[in-house]
Design goal:
mainly alpha; Glycerol uptake facilitator protein; 3-stranded mixed sheet; two-stranded parallel sheet; 5 strands; elongated
Amino acid sequence: MQNHQETKSDQPLFNGPRGGASSKVAKDSDLLFDQIEQASVPSLNFYFMLGMATAIASFGLLSNSAPAIIGAMIVAPLMSPIVGFSFAAIMGANGLALRSLVSILTGIALVIGIAFACTIAIGLRVVGSEIMARTAPSTLDLLVALCSGAVAAFAHSRIGIANSIAGVAIAVALVPPLSVVGIGLALGDSAVSAQAIAMSDFHHQGNGTSMAGGAFLLFVTNFLGIVAAAMLVFGLQGYGHWRKPFAVATVLTLASFFVVDRLDRRLEIIFVEDLVKRLYVEAVNQNTEIVSEDSYIWQVRGERVDGRLAVSVVLLGLRDNLDRVDTAAETFRSLLAKQLGEEVSLRLEIIPIDVVVHEVSAPDQAAGSNR
């Protein structure tokens, strides 16, 4: 085990206003150091548990099974070295920081590799909702990561609430998005949506490679949020120099701006998609002629094209109602633009359907009607 002298710098462990408590904090930091070091360094236990968690997550993602994915989150030990890296950075323990970083990097490679191999071995190509949910992160995911990192750091330093760490592992996804990276790389252009449409032809979603990129962005977002919040919480509890957590958290926050722009754009699209669905339901409930109650929204997607908001809506509609699509589309586009306060282009893709109603009477009713 590493010599604890590396946790002690030339400065006291805590130089803040509560300097008199430094001896107690030093004693607590030794216990916390032992606990975090055992969970963070590369070991057979770490790689075995991470490998099994990845297999569970991969099979769960391919089968679109939420319970299996949640189980993988609980089993996966990847949160420990991330918290260990945060604690080592705040304490100035370079050795622990390096070993934790090795665990993180090798763990990332292991997860992606196993997920890739599982996908090739199983041969499934259908991309379900559980996979797609991890390919488009937003600012909301960063907020979840910040809260989870704060809870993880606090739980590690409070033995009485250590059981909360399992809940943190579920709240912030680490292994599932990395598994989606491996799955996306394995699928490539052969990915098929749950609606039996090739993802490469389904312009709303892209292909396996773009899915992998979005999932990796989600992991990076979670990593930055966890590290920034964990270091801040450790520092506020008296570990390390009291100025250090604020400085490091500021640096990580600035680094997160490289991904925040994309996260903000995704959050904007989430609000737009929500608005489209709400306006559609209101139009149906108010019996307007904009939309018909016999039409159903199958999918809504939004994106910025040359700075302009473009919304695509896929509808299932009765064939008999297609004669007034042009007028209804322009009216709905104007309503949407008014609500958003900017001009919007609207693309409607209508899948015409015929509703056939066939009723068969029960035998006794049929016999009675013949008398």
